[in-house]
Every structure is written in C-alpha cells, then in structure tokens.
Amino acid sequence: MADEGMQSWKTLALGCAMTEPGSSKRFNTGDWRSGRRPVTDREKCIKCGKCYILCPDMCYSPDPEAEGYYLWDSFYCKGCGICIHECPKDAISWQDEKEEDTHGAACGS
Amino acid sequence: MARRVGLEVSLACSEAVKLCNVDVVAAYPITPQTHIVEHLSELVADGHLDAEFVPVESEHSAMSACIGASAAGARTFTSTASQGLALMHEMLFIASGLRLPIVMAVANRSLSAPISIWNDHSDIMAERDVGWIQVFAENGQEVLDLTIHAYKVAEDPRVLLPVAVNLDGFILTHVIEPIEIPDQAEVDAYLPPYTPQMRLDIANPVSMGMVGVPEVYTEARKACLVALEGSYEVIKEHWEGFAQHFGRRYQPIETYQAEGAETLFVTMGSLGETCMTAVDQMREQGQSVGQVRIRLWRPFPVDDFVEAVKGAKRLVVIDRALQPGSASGPVATELKALLYDRGIEMYVANFVAGLSGRDVTRADFAAMAQRVEAAQAAGQPMTCEMWGVKE
Amino acid sequence: MIEVRFHGRGGQGAVTSCELMAQAAIAEGRYAQAFPSFGPERRGAPLQAFLRISDHPIRLREKIYEPDIVVVLDPALLASGGVKEGLKPGGTLVANTSKSVAEVRGECGFDGRTAVVDATRIAVEELGVPITNTTMLGALLKAVGLVKLESLKGPLETRFGPLGEKNWKALLRAENETVIEE
Lengths: 109, 391, 182
Ligand code: SF4
Ligand code: SF4
Hints:
Chain B is an alpha/beta fold and 391 residues long. Helices cover 41% and strands 19% of the residues of chain B. Chain B binds chain C through residues 4-6, 32, 117-119, 168, 170-172, 174-178, 270-271, 273-274, 276-277, 357, 359-362, and chain C through 19, 22-23, 25-27, 29, 31-36, 38-40, 58-63, 65, 155.
C-alpha cells in the first residue's frame, strides 16, 4: 500500500481525535455521486422545506436571494436520492452530471 | 490517620471510590457486584460523595455513560460482572481506543449457560484483549489499594487508559475482614484532582471517535498498544509511590517461597491466599514448593515473570476460566508462549479449577502438585486438565 | 485460628451474628473473616454463615469444613444431620433450644461439649421478636470466649443504633442463662 495520506502513529492526536474544528469543509464528499445529481425545479417547489430538513448531509440551505427556496451544495451531496424521494411535489429530479460539475464549490464557504 | 475497620470487601471498594472523589458513577446492578454500587448510590444520596450517580438501564449504557462522562473530563467509575461485562464488550474497546481513564471494578463471575452467579474468571478472560490495564486483587485491602492506584495510573498523562480492577465475586466481595482505610488527606496527597489532557469542550472543540480509515487505523491501534505497554513503568512507579504514602507494596508479579522451589504454583486472584497457606503446609512436609502470583495481567509483565520462575523444575498454572478449543487455559497459554519466546524449557502443567465458585482448597493444591510431579516423572505432558470434574 | 459455622434460616440473623463477631475481633486488633454461604438468600430457607478469628492474618479463602464451633440459631435445624457435620470431636456445639443438653445430644448426634440456651424466648421477651442473632452471641461467648464481651458493644451499637441497648441486654441475659456440659 502506498503511504500517501498516512501519518506516523507518533503524531496522531490522543485517542485519534480530530483536533481541528471544521476540517470536514475540506472533505469533498460530492465526488461520491455516481453520474447524476438532484436538481430542483422551482416552478414546482412549494417551499415546504422537506429537502432542507431531510437531507442527511445538510446539503440544502436557505437561498438568501429567494426566500423560501433552497440552494443545493454540490460539494457535499452524495447523491443518495432521499430529497427526490421525499419532495411532496416531485420538484426534485435526477439530472445527468456534467464532467465539469462533479466537483462543485462548497456552499456558503 | 488511617482507620482499621471490619468491612465487607465490596464496601471497601466503594469507600476507595469515594476517597478518589469521583465525579460520575454510572452502573447497573448485577450479582455479585451489587453491594459496591448500592453503597456508592447511598454515599451520593446522603451527600458524602459529591458525584453524579447515573442509574442506567443496562451495562452497555453504563459503559457508554462512562465514556461520555470521561470524555467530558470527569473522573469516572463503574462496576459490573459476568453477563454485564459481556454486554459492555463493544464499548470497552471504545474506552481504551479513545484513551479514557475510566476505572471499573469487575466482581468476577462465571458466564451462562447454565446460569451461574458464582465466581470464576470467564468474564474478564473474554475481555482480555480490549486494551485495558487489568489487575487482580487477592483480598479486601488490595481491592481498596488497587482502586486508588488505578486512578493514579489511568490519569497519568503518560498512560491515559482505562483500568479494570478484578476481585473475585462472593469469595472477596461478600466477605467482612479487616481493612485499613486511609483518610481523605492521605489519598489527596497521593492522587491529585484529574486534569484531562483532552476533553469535549465547546471552547476548544475536538471530535472523538472518528472513522479510522485503513490509512489511519493501524497507526491508531499502534498508539494504544504503545500506551498500554508503556503503562508498565508507570504502574510500577505509582506502586512505589503508593508504598511510600501508605506503606503497602505491590509488584506486577509477586512471589511466595519461590526462591529455589522446584514446583511453582501460578495463581491469579483470591486463590492466591489459600495457595500460600497450602505452600506453608507442604513445605512443613518437606516439599519444595512455592508460588507466583500474577497481579498485573495486562500489560503482561513478561520479564518479571521470567525472573520469578527461573530455576523451577515445573509450573502448576491454575486457570479459573476455560479457553474452549485451545490446548490450555488462557493464563497457561500466555505463559507457555512467553517461555518459548525466551528459549526457556520448562514443564508447564495446567489445571482449570474453581469454575463457578467451586472451592479450591489447600488439599487440592497438594493433590495437584502430587499429580504433576508424577506425570512429569512418567514423561507425560499435562497440557490442561479440568480439576475435580465428576466423571 | 478458630473456625465457626452458624446455622440459621434466612431472616433469623445468622449472617449478622457472624458479622458482629468478626467486627468485635477486628476491633480488638485481631484478624477475622465473616462470610455467608454464597448464593441467593431466601427468607426462611436454611442457611449457613462462616467465621474465622485469628491472631494472625488469615490467608485462606476456602469454605469451613471442620469447624471448631457450631452455632445453631433455629431449634428446628438441630435434628437435621448437617449440624454436626465436620464439627471437630473436641469442638463445641452452641444451640438455641428449650431442651436439655441430653435431649439436644440425642437429636443431633453430637456428644461433645454442648451449650444450650432458650434464645428465642429471651429474644421475644427482651426484643419483642424471635430474632436470635444477638442472644446467641451471648451464648457463644459464654461457651467459648472468642472475643471480649465489651468488644461486641461497639459493633452492636453501630448495627442496631437506638436498639443497640436492648440487644445488649438480651445478649447479657442469654450469656447468663446459657448451660454448658462438657
Ligand atoms: S441526493 Fe441525498 S445528499 Fe444529495 S441533496 Fe439529496 S438528500 Fe442530500
Ligand atoms: S421538498 Fe420539494 S417542495 Fe419542499 S422545499 Fe424542497 S424542493 Fe421544494
């Protein structure tokens, strides 16, 4: 095994704790999606907020420019499809991922 | 000034915990541990111990609560036995992996089936590899002393590991005997308040219990292993300090009449005392016998053990638990491996005795020695025998 | 080292007797062990409790198989064979009974040194309950001076609080009324 990303046992924090807060901001889980992403059709959206509440990775956040709507975070979305399943108006649907979209910018960072 | 009182050993354990001024006790009652936590809950309820007593709904929760409390920086205690310890199993790894200095008294008891509330070491032997420091007491005074020492070791910044203090269920827990209880000032002088090296603190956020991806896990375990092995020196150092403070001395491996003895019994826990008296009686009859007691079981004090047994013609290792499917009991297996590693050839006989509280008497020790001598003379190995099985 | 076995029933106080004796010996600076027969306890079921007293540290965790003294707290247990089991030929039997020594010997088959006292009657009269743990200690001390009488006073007070005084009186009366035959 190549030792890329490995560190000596001597330099690990006590109990292998993570001592740097917010380090997950650097951890792009968006690249776990396989080929497709959820896209919201705001024409159909009734602003119920279910996607916001139910996404297990908190990928939806209130859109500061359009009250009641939500922004999607490409950096964290793993493509589980829960938001699509839960949206009462079928406003969210899969869309093929374009190559250049795969690694989106972190939302709100 | 220390007080010498007649006290049930369970209560001596609770008194030690009180003297250590713990912050959190989380426990679920189970025979034969019950009196320990019962008394602690009384001490808390009556205001003699300023601690949080968490009456959890299971042992799994007890250890979980202890892990949380310890991670938040509290001095933490729990106690259990048998099935209760088994129910804690997965959490025990987490306590050591997160390097939390929890102290637990294990009132050793058999495991079901069939249901048994009586003593043997099946419970702790099943938790041998959880990465905890593990010590064994032979009497009530040792229970009190080892509990105080356990916090001193566990919280030492060079160690930061949980400690299990083993005391035989009923055989020790339910006996009233003389105990010397040090006073608070004496204990305070030995054991300072706990200063966590790292804790859950919103002002200094950390995450504990992270995923250990393959690139990290091996190194994380190595760090724990090194800490456990390194605890050996600290354990000895603090036993030395204990002797200076309280006048009672402990060693990782202790011996009795072992010097020059041809036959050495190896015991762990309360069997040790009966064995000492058996050795006295056998010596009076001119037999060359002695005894080696394993006080520190994890980390195993290999060098001390080798030193203690060198020159003996045979070891009679008494296991108080089975290791089903393996050639010998857990203690004997360990000892044979280390002797082999050192190139030491020695006749090692193994008995599994005292299961489920079955009495092991002076006469049993004498009969074992006789049996082993005869077997060795006849050139037969004595890999492992269940002692006293009714055929 | 002296070894004592107590026979009683759950709730009669055999375990307490045993503990009080150990406390008294320890208070004298000596060594003692007190322990019940290990296992679940049920009210009314026959049980045993064990006591060792010695001037030296006791390094023994066996049960007691050959006691020097047997104390029987319940008259109904005298007839059951277990009472004299292992009792050393030169040992002493201390029994709670309204019967004579000769009758007790006939009942339990032990013909050595025997002490009898009607501990139940004394307990009922002095304490109002047929619990013979403290009265039988009076008999035991009369038969075999294992500890000094006064050494029991502290343990009795700690154990019974305000009832300590009454128990002390019952103990002294039982001691006085105990009849011993060699
Ligand atoms: S697909 Fe899953 S992870 Fe992505 S936004 Fe929807 S619910 Fe969240
Ligand atoms: S769940 Fe659907 S309707 Fe509700 S806010 Fe989200 S996109 Fe809009």
